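User: Some background: our group keeps a shared notebook of sequences we're curious about, and every so often someone picks one and asks for a predicted structure to add to the entry. Today it's my turn. The entry only has the sequence so far, pasted here. Could you supply the structure so I can complete it?
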Amino acid sequence: MGLKETLQSDLTEAIRARDELKSGTIRMVLTAITMEEVSGKEARTLTDTEIITVLSREAKKRKEASEAYAEAGRADRADREKAEGEIIALYLPTQLTSEEIEAMIAEAIAETGATGPAGMGLVMKIISPKIAGKADGGSVSGLVKAALTGGKS
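Assistant: Of course. Here's the predicted structure to add to the notebook entry:
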């Protein structure tokens, strides 16, 4: 059973259990997946990898919204956004630890022979497919930059 089918069956369970937060969140995610499927010149079915990309994007939106609400003093909305993010995270692959990411960066630097900031593109090209959905690209980019500049970011 694919990721989309899992989401749809979990939606049915959440509706039966009258869990409004979970059912609403899964509905939003399924809508985002459908929007991605019909965008472009012709409709297509997303692979699980592409669905993970959509889920990652939705989780990031929830995290940013939660932070924005918290800064604005809207703790109730911040908590709801955070809870939605946690539900979405259940469907994402486990996130890589910083040690695992640093090991991957060191391996990629050794593989490419990159030195200095000019080699950042080469390293990111190798690392990006490995971390897709498992780590935030922005933070990984910062770690790669720090590794290539000798810790000075």
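Suggested note for the entry: The chain has seven helices and no strands. The chain has a mean pLDDT of 86.
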